[in-house]
Design goal:
Layout: H1 6-14, H2 20-29, H3 32-61, E1 77-78, H4 85-89, E2 99-104, H5 110-123, E3 128-132, H6 133-145, H7 149-157, E4 161-167, H8 174-187, E5 192-197, H9 204-208, H10 211-223, E6 225-230, H11 235-238
Parallel strand pairs: 2-5, 2-6, 3-4, 4-5
Antiparallel strand pairs: 1-6
Helix pairs in contact: 3-5, 6-7, 6-8, 8-10
Length: about 240
């Protein structure tokens, strides 16, 4: 048999999707040392695929920046009595299609935490997507105008975690409110939502322009959701160059 070059192996590997039958056959033929080599090869391939998937999910998440939970300061957060920091870090809420409302003062770490949760999900192979509220409404409106709203909603629905940031920061017109409601309603009991806001629930009617629609959204989020309250001085103000 002619000598197999490295390029030949690489080319063969590109088209290989090994079955258990093939692996079992060659493992039985091999010596202990050859089986060890084969095992190392397969584990390296598995690790490479896992890392590629993580990178692909992070790109698809469209994050404003890559943030992590490492060193995150939780002191500004008041957790519910039945839910704490460890459960949050474990992404326990994703396993049950539960929601999180990050509510409180501007600059206290809501967006950082929401982004870090999306990053953590991607690192575990869980599809996530980040939107600002204004950006999501604009994307949905454009899709509707172009006659592809159903496809856009289906693409959003493929994510197990949705982050909707800055809810209530900008007004939403009637059509935008209906589109946003559709995303939230479609995800009810199917996927998790992390929503950041500085508006109390009683003021959500002003955002949607309809008290009944706001009540319907709140009803869904409260049913399988938890409220994390943020209080304190803005991190940006505290560390601003301009005094």
């Amino acid at each position: 048999m002619s000598i197999i070059e490295i390029d030949d192996l690489v080319e063969a590997g590109r088209g290989a999707s090994l079955t258990s039958t093939v692996i079992d056959e060659f493992a039985r033929k091999g010596t202990p040392k050859q089986r060890e080599f084969l095992y190392e090869l397969l584990m390296a391939e598995q690790a490479s695929r896992t890392e590629s998937r993580r990178a692909r999910l992070l790109r698809a998440a469209k994050l404003p920046a890559v943030k992590t939970l490492t060193g995150y300061d939780f002191t500004a957060i008041t957790f519910p009595t039945d839910y704490g920091r460890e459960q949050l870090i474990d992404l326990d809420f994703l396993n049950h299609a539960q929601d999180l409302i990050l509510f409180g003062d501007v600059g206290t770490g809501k967006t950082h935490l929401a982004t870090a949760l999306a990053v953590a999900a991607c690192q575990r192979g869980i599809p996530a997507k980040f939107f600002t509220t204004a950006g999501l409404v604009m994307q949905l409106r454009r899709a509707k105008d172009e006659g592809r709203l159903d496809k856009e909603l289906a693409a959003i629905a493929k994510n197990q975690l949705l982050v909707i940031d800055e809810f209530g920061y900008l007004p939403i017109d009637d059509e935008g409110a209906r589109l946003l409601f559709q995303v939230i309603a479609d995800g009810y009991e199917k996927r998790s939502l992390v929503l950041t806001t500085n508006l109390e629930f009683k003021r959500w009617g002003m955002v949607f322009g309809d008290e009944n629609m706001a009540a319907a959204v709140i009803d869904r989020l409260v049913h399988h959701g938890r409220l994390l309250q943020f209080r304190g001085q803005s991190y940006r103000v505290k560390n601003a160059l301009m005094k």
